[in-house]
């Protein structure tokens, strides 16, 4: 016989500091969601999805593109398909928890910012009566939480992100997107949150974006794009463990480091545009609020 813990029993096993973080994030995001994001979220995503409702006889003024030719042929007079706005959406959060997320040189680590962004998006979703699901991944999918509604479920999603102890040592975005396609059968709004320290995921992303509305959120840290002049430092790749001794007093070394990082960012953005994938750039060195608001407002204008 398989024994399952209740939600209350699971809650007791979670360290108090994690629960405090969840509460802090809830308080921080509640005002922003109420004042800004839920309205922007609604204007951007609600109404984007339409589902078939019925077939009825053609009336003067109907769009001829909605004519159902099969029914029209059978009945001998024109009939049209009627569609209605989907009453609810499914929002899937795909969160990269690979070791490179445990990095931050300003105030927060990339993983902490990812959790707060997820909270903002999840609370906006449930305020609009939508479902929220979660896929946590590293070089494989480590956790899947099926989409549900409600504040209690969203708090669970945030706890999962904060409390999860990553097992994988690298990043595999392709695997996460393939699992998404297996567990999500209806069209969903998908937020892919990662630092994108990975390659070879382009085909999987393109396939996922044809079926779903995928938005990529890239989180970076200033020290990943610019080296300070502080003498010799040892750089370590968080995912491979490879180390490299670098002389930061060498201006050419610093310039090459910055150029490589800038090239990587531009290449990523070019790939996203080519695949028609919307993206948001977030840095640990700045507030993530402004890039999110800018994205929502620009996207809302596009769909008007």
Q: What do these coordinates show?
A:
This protein has 304 residues and is α/β, with parallel strands linked by helices. The protein folds into two domains: 13-45 and 88-303, von Willebrand factor, type A domain (Rossmann fold); 52-85, no CATH class. It has nine helices and ten strands. The protein has helices at 7-13, 16-45, 69-75, 110-127, 151-163, 173-183, 202-211, 251-274, 289-303, and strands at 50-57, 79-85, 90-96, 131-137, 141-148, 189-194, 213-220, 232-236, 243-247, 278-283. The strands form three sheets. The chain has a six-stranded mixed sheet with strand order 5-4-3-6-7-10, with helices on both faces. Strands 1-2 form a two-stranded antiparallel ribbon. β6, α7 (202-211) and β7 form a beta-alpha-beta unit.
Count of β-strands: 10
> End-to-end span in angstroms?
55 Å
Biggest beta sheet attributes? 6 strands, mixed
Number of domains: 2
Q: How many helical stretches?
A: 9
CA-based shape: elongated
Low-confidence stretches: none
Within CATH, the superfamily of the largest domain carries the name von Willebrand factor, type A domain
Cα radius of gyration in angstroms: 23 Å
Order of helices and strands: HHEHEEHEEHHEHEEEHEH
Overall structural class, as computed from helix and strand content, comes to: alpha/beta
Mean pLDDT: 81
- The helicity comes to 40-55%
């Amino acid at each position: 016989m398989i024994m399952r813990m209740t939600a209350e029993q699971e809650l007791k096993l979670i360290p108090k500091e994690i629960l405090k973080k969840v509460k802090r994030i809830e308080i921080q995001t509640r005002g922003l969601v109420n004042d800004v994001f839920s309205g922007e979220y609604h204007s951007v995503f609600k109404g984007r999805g339409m589902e078939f409702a019925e077939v009825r006889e053609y009336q003067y003024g109907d769009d001829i593109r909605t004519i159902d030719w099969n029914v029209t042929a059978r009945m001998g007079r024109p009939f049209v398909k009627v569609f209605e706005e989907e009453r609810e959406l499914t929002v899937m959060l795909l969160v990269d928890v690979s070791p490179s997320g445990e990095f931050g040189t300003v105030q927060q680590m990339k993983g902490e910012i990812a959790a707060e962004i997820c909270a903002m998006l999840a609370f906006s979703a449930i305020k609009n009566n939508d479902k929220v699901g979660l896929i946590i991944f590293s070089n494989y999918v480590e956790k899947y939480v099926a989409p549900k509604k409600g504040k209690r479920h969203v708090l669970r999603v945030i706890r999962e992100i904060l409390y999860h102890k990553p097992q994988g040592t690298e990043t595999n975005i392709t695997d996460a997107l393939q699992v998404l396609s297996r567990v999500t059968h209806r069209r969903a709004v998908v937020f892919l949150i990662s630092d994108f320290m990975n390659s070879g995921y382009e085909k999987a992303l393109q396939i996922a974006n044809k079926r779903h509305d995928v938005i990529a959120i890239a989180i970076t840290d200033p020290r990943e794009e610019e080296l300070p002049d502080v003498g010799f430092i040892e750089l370590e790749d968080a995912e491979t463990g490879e180390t490299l001794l670098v002389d930061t007093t060498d201006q050419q070394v610093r310039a090459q480091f910055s150029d490589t990082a800038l090239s990587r960012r531009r290449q990523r953005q070019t790939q996203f545009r080519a695949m028609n994938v919307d993206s948001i750039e977030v840095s640990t060195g700045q507030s993530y609020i402004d890039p999110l608001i800018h994205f929502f407002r620009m996207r809302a204008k596009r769909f008007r």
